[in-house]
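Entry for the shared binder. Reason: the reviewer on the internal report wants the predicted structure included alongside the sequence.
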Amino acid sequence: MKNYQCSKCGTALQSDKTPSAFNCPKGGHHQWTDLGEVGPNNYQCKKCGLLLKSKNTPSAFNCPSGGHHQWTKL
């Protein structure tokens, strides 16, 4: 199971495969970023506020707030 987030609309979810790209609420297609494996550790991005459970520090790429995520382990 992996964490995914759309860099356009900020929607985040857990899935065993890349989610469907159709019908992003911001228009057109979702642009999913694989943030890494789901795990026991809590991380939060200082920029967009996303909170997720991850095995390791999530990928920093494609923060919906612009640039890279800035993860803090909680």
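Summary line for the report: The mean pLDDT is 98.
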